[in-house]
Amino acid sequence: MTDPRNPWLARFRPAGDGAIRLICFPHAGGGGATFRDWADDLPPEIDLCGVRFPARESRLREKPYLRMDELVPALAEGLADDLARPYALLGYCSGALIAWELATYLARSGRRPPELLAVFAFPAPALVEPTLVHRLPTEQLTAHLRGLGVIPDAILADPGLFSMFETGVRADYEVFETWTRRAEPPLTVPVTVFGAAADPSVTVPELAAWRAETSGEFTLRVLAGDHSFFTASRRRLTGSIAADLLAVRAVNR
Fold first, then answer.
1. Does the keyword Hydrolase apply (predicted)?
2. What is the pTM of this model?
3. DSSP string, the chain
């Protein structure tokens, strides 16, 4: 459900006063519901939140952001209250780039940094290759999404359903396909990277290259499987994230 206090966030269990808030950014076209099942796995010490971008879910009628340099300041403002207490950022696929951009924006602005940045299934920012998925005809776009396996076939096969989804997914692709990296110093926070050995969308060396994005602690976890590891290995992933977050909080108290 949408957090009644903040349309940018979705919650799947009552808001708590946990030790740390975990703010999760979904893949292109995804919504906060991407992380719904995580509510069953994470301990109460972790306050789970999924980000809801405009043009999807409860914000379907809102105009989407199309540029990273417009989206990130809006996120920083919209999440300001949630970033005023201990928090971590987590990004899946293209959501990893948005989470990293938000972390660097906050550092540049002298704001409270995340306790941890966790990224899933996305190459390091320095290795992002330009693509033009957001310009593909609908038929080719659905084929591309079907190949990634992160959008339910029921949506992709139904033109009516997909028409509701299409604006958001094109906007998300346009955000990172028009993105240009600015010169930024490395983050100082711990970064944990998750990937799968047989994921066709990103190689292990591309995941390892995140090491250059922080002067803090770096952890790379490579699981068996392909891009579907995010759901197939969910409980292993949530267990690792929970352990990392609680360990970070213990150190930073």
1. yes
2. 0.92
3. -EETTEEEEE-SS-----SEEEEEEPPTT--GGGGGGGGGTS-TTEEEEEE--TTSGGGTTSPPP--HHHHHHHHHHHTTTTTSSSEEEEEETHHHHHHHHHHHHHHHTTPPPPS-EEEES---GGGPPP--GGGS-HHHHHHHHHHHT-S-HHHHT-HHHHHHHHHHHHHHHHHHHS--PPP-PPB-S-EEEEEETT-TTS-HHHHHGGGGGBSS-EEEEEESSSTTHHHHTHHHHHHHHHHHHHHHHHHH-
